[in-house]
Structure to design on (388 residues):
C-alpha cells in the first residue's frame, strides 16, 4: 500500500490507473506549455518567512469564500470530463468536497449532470457555465442550475474558443473513448477503470445529451466546443447572464487588471485570477504573477481568488499572502480522483490542509486571515519589467 504524503504521489497513481487519453487531457497545457509550466515554477520562486517563538496553538485553516464557511480557503475548480478519470467522477468529487467542507464546482462539460450531482449530495454546489450559441440551451442550463439549488454561478470567460493541446489531438480524445487498437491496448492495463466504468450508466456528457437540440457529435470535446460555444460573449452578455441568474456570481478566467475592473464594475461576488491552468493562451503570464496587480486594482470591490498552479498548502498560503481571499484547485484534486475516486480527492484535500496548517504554524501564524504580504520573500523582479 503506497503511503500518500503529497499531491505528486496521487499524480503518479492517477497516471497508472486512468487511461492515457484522460491522464494526458489533465496533465497538459496548450501549445508549448510554457504558461502551464510557469504556473507552478513561479510559485517556487516565492519563499515563506520562517518565524519562531510565537504561540502556535489554537490554529485553524478555516476561512470564508463569498460568505460560505470553508475548512480551508480553496474550492474544487470546474473540470471537464471528471467522470472519465474515474467512473461517476463528478459525484465522487462533490461528495469528497462536502465531507471535507469545501465547495465543489460542476463544469458544463461534465459527465455527471447537474441533476446527478444534486441527487447524490446534500451540500449546495456551484455550477460553471460555458455559454453556448444556442441561447435556449444556455438559458436551460441556468434554469437547471437554479432548480438544483446551486449556490453560485461560475461564468468562465477565458474559453470561447479552445486553446490547442497537442496530446488531445494525437490521442483522439473522446468521451467515452473510441475503441481503436491503441486505446484497447491501453485499456487492457487499466482493468480497474474499465470495471468501474461498466458499472455506471454515466459515460457521456449528460449536461448536453438529451438537453441540447439538433446537435451532432457530442463525444468530442473539441468538436462540441468549436461548433457550439458562443464566440460573441462580451461584457454586455455577461451582465445579462448575471441578471438572469440573480444570485451569487463568480467570474473566472481573469488575468488582466482592465478586465478585473470590468468584472468588479458588474458586481461579481468574486473573480478568479486564472489562465485556465495554462490550457488557453500559451505565453500568458502565470496567475500568481498577475495576482498582486489585480488585487491592488479591485481587491476592495470584490473577492479576488486565484487558481492555476496550486500543488501544495504552501502555494495556497503564498496566494493568500499576495492578497487572494480564496483559491481554486484543479489538477491537485483530479490526480486524487483518477488515483482512487472519492478517497483520493479527500486525500488531496487532507494533504493540502496539513501542509497549510503546519507551514502556517512555522511562519508563526494561527489562521489564514493573518497571512499577509509580510510573510513572504518575493524576488525584486518577480512581477517582471514588461512593456505593453
Ligand atoms: C482537465 C481539466 C479540465 C478543465 N475543464 C474546465 C472546465 O470545464 N471549465 C472551466 O471553467 N475550467 C476548466 N478547467 C480549468 C480549471 O477550472 C482551473 O482553472 C485549472 O485547473 C487551475 O489550474 P491547476 O489545474 O493548475 O490547479 C479545466 C482544467 C483541467 C486541468
Amino acid at each position: 500500500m503506497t503511503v500518500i504524503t503529497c499531491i505528486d504521489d496521487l499524480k503518479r497513481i492517477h497516471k497508472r490507473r486512468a487511461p492515457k487519453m484522460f491522464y494526458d487531457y489533465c496533465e497538459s497545457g496548450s501549445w508549448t506549455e510554457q504558461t502551464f509550466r510557469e504556473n507552478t515554477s513561479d510559485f517556487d520562486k516565492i519563499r515563506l518567512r520562517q518565524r519562531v517563538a510565537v504561540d502556535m496553538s489554537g490554529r485553524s485553516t478555516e476561512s470564508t469564500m463569498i460568505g460560505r464557511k470553508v475548512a480551508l480557503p480553496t474550492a474544487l475548480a470546474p473540470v471537464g470530463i471528471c467522470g472519465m478519470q474515474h467512473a461517476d467522477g463528478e459525484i465522487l468529487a462533490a461528495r469528497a468536497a462536502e465531507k471535507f467542507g469545501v465547495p465543489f464546482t460542476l463544469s458544463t462539460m461534465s459527465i455527471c449532470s447537474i441533476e446527478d450531482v444534486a441527487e447524490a449530495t446534500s451540500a449546495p454546489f456551484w455550477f460553471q457555465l460555458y455559454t453556448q450559441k444556442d441561447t435556449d440551451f444556455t438559458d436551460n442550463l441556468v434554469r437547471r442550475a437554479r432548480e438544483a439549488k446551486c449556490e453560485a454561478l461560475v461564468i468562465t470567460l477565458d474559453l470561447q474558443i479552445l486553446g490547442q493541446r497537442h496530446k488531445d489531438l494525437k490521442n483522439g480524445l473522446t468521451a467515452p473513448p473510441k475503441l481503436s487498437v491503441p486505446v484497447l491496448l491501453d485499456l487492457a492495463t487499466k482493468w480497474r477503470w474499465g470495471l468501474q466504468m461498466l458499472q455506471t450508466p454515466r459515460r457521456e456528457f449528460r449536461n448536453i445529451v438529451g438537453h441540447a437540440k439538433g446537435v451532432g457529435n457530442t463525444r468530442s470535446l473539441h468538436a462540441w466546443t468549436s461548433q457550439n460555444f458562443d464566440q460573441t460573449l462580451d461584457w454586455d452578455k455577461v451582465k445579462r447572464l448575471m441578471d438572469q441568474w440573480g444570485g451569487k456570481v463568480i467570474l473566472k478566467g481573469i488575468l488582466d487588471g482592465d478586465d478585473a475592473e470590468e468584472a468588479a464594475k458588474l458586481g461579481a461576488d468574486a473573480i478568479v485570477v486564472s489562465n485556465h491552468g495554462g490550457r488557453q493562451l500559451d505565453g500568458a503570464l502565470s496567475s500568481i504573477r498577475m495576482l498582486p496587480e489585480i488585487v491592488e486594482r479591485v481587491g476592495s470591490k470584490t473577492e479576488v481568488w486565484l487558481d492555476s498552479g496550486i500543488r501544495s498548502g504552501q502555494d495556497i498560503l503564498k496566494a493568500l499572502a499576495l492578497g487572494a481571499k480564496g483559491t481554486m484547485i484543479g489538477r491537485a484534486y483530479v490526480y486524487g480522483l483518477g488515483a482512487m475516486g472519492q478517497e483520493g480527492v479527500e486525500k488531496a484535500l487532507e494533504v493540502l490542509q496539513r501542509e497549510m496548517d503546519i507551514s502556517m504554524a512555522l511562519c508563526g501564524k494561527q489562521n489564514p486571515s493573518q497571512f499577509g504580504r509580510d510573510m513572504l520573500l518575493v524576488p525584486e523582479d518577480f512581477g517582471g519589467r514588461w512593456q505593453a
